[in-house]
Amino acid sequence: AVVSTQSTGDRRSQEKIFNVQEPAHIACPGANSAHPKTTTEWTYTNTSTMRSTALSLYTDSLAEGDAGTYTCVVSNSQGNCTYTINIRAQDPQSVTSGSNRLLLILMVALAFAVFVIIGFIVVMQMRKRTKKKKRQSTEALERLNQPVFSMSNGYEDGLPSTSNNMPHNQLYSTLSKF
Fold it and tell me: pTM of the full predicted structure?
C-alpha cells in the first residue's frame, strides 16, 4: 500500500513511499491512453533495463533493496514519453518513520529542556551555598578581629586604669608571667 505520494509539479516525476514487507505497485502514467500500441521500457536506478509491455510493476513484499528511482519510457510510432518514479521503502515499526520522527524530535527537545532547567537549578543552589559560606566566613573573621580590650569599657591603651586599685607596673608583671 502506498504510504505517501508526492508530485514534483511535473506530472512526469513522482515520489512514492511504501512500507517494507508490504505489496507495492507502480504504474507508468499515460501509457494506457496512448495510440497506436506502446512499448514500455523500465529502468531501475539507471543500471538495469527491463523491456516489458507491462504498464506497471508489482511486488507482493517490498524489500529495502527495491527502493530507488524507476524510470519508464513509453514509446510508439508517434514518439516517446519518460516518467520517473522515486520509490522510498520505510519500516513501519521504525522509530524514525513518518509521524514517529516528529515524536522522537519532540522527546529529544523535551529531554534537553529538562536537562537545561535542572542544570540551572543546580547552579543557582551552588551559588546560594557559596554566598552563604562566604557570608559566614566574613562574620567569623569580623568576630576574630574585634578588640579584646575596649577603650569604651574604661581601659586606656588596652590596660586597666589604676582606678581599679592595681598599678600599671603590677599589671605588667602579672601579664609577663604568662
Answer: 0.47
